Amino acid sequence: MALHGDSSGEFDTKSPADKLFTSFTDDINNTFDIISNEKITEYVGWEKRTVTLSMSGNLVSDSYKKFKATITVTPKAYEADGSRVLWTVEFEKIRHDVEDPVWIIDSLINYLKEIDGVLIYSLF
């Protein structure tokens, strides 16, 4: 099993890109405190709706030297069609027997989908 790895993907949401991105970035530290008591270092690019998170703390540093996630939210052709979320995660494990950080990636994706659901509910 390799020590370095990456994973990426995308999914569609029904929320407008600006609202989804703002909701996600407004509450970023509280979100990951709840998930794992991690320290978040972030870069937010408002123009391109991109956020990069570097996580360190109890759960991450016990298994990974590096964990960095980049999330970009782009509007679809028609704002009423929602937006697309592109995500990329780069990581480096401290040992070969450490599993890939699937649980962190799943938590991040599920949180973004929950934000989408809340926003859609509040828009109607």
UniProtKB/TrEMBL annotation:
Pfam families: Bet_v_1. Residues 2-122 form the Bet v I/Major latex protein domain. InterPro entries: Bet_v_I/MLP, MLP-like_ligand-binding, START-like_dom_sf. This is Bet v I/Major latex protein domain-containing protein. It comes from Brassica carinata. GO terms for biological process: defense response.
